Amino acid sequence: MYFLILIHFSGLALSATLGITKNIKKMKARILIKKADPEAYKALGVLSNYIANSSLSKTHQELIKIRASQINGCAYCIDMHTKDARKAGETEQRIYALNAWRETPFFTEEERAILALTEEVTLIQNHVSDKTYEEAERILGEKYLAQVIMAIINISAWNRIGIATGMQPGL
Predict the structure, then answer these.
(1) How many domains is the chain built from?
(2) How far apart are CA 82 and CA 170, in angstroms?
(3) Residue 13 CA to chain centroid, in angstroms?
């Protein structure tokens, strides 16, 4: 009897998985901003290029992109930036633990300040606490802090484009 129940539950899980896959494939095509308004898309790209060429380390850039994308729920950006982070040498362990960074010993003091700020700027309706801001400023310095804030804002804008236009990661 246990064996039959297990098969029954497996069938439900398979049906649910197939249903989700069918929904993704049937998603209605939405606007491609890059095509509909190339100048607007290019303008956001200018900020992205500035950040990519700033003094922010590649590790910090990718941690910001992944964590903000997790919070915002942008599957396309999570997929893209976890791949980019791996290519840049980020470990699987740190990527997997990123949404629980406070509970791990895997992140430096500097990264912790950046991640705390990333969360508070991304969840801006709760405001950025004086404690988080002052800690980040103390650890990072003014210019690096400014670049971190701009990187958070930039990825949040890309997340909103990805979500609003229904961008999906490839299989």
Answers:
(1) 1
(2) 13
(3) 28
141: left (phi over 0), alpha (psi -120 to 50) or beta: left
Q: Is residue 42 part of a domain?
A: yes
Alpha-carbon dihedral angle through residues 134, 90, 171, 160, given to the nearest 10 degrees: 10
What does the longest C-alpha to C-alpha distance in the chain come to? 66
List the CATH number of the domain containing 140.
Answer: 1.20.1290.10
Which residue type is seen at 128? V
10-residue mean pLDDT profile of the chain (171 residues): values are: 38 43 61 94 97 98 98 97 97 97 98 98 97 98 98 98 92 82
pTM to 2 decimals?
Answer: 0.83
Coil, strand, or helix at residue 52? helix
Residue 160 structural domain: 31-164
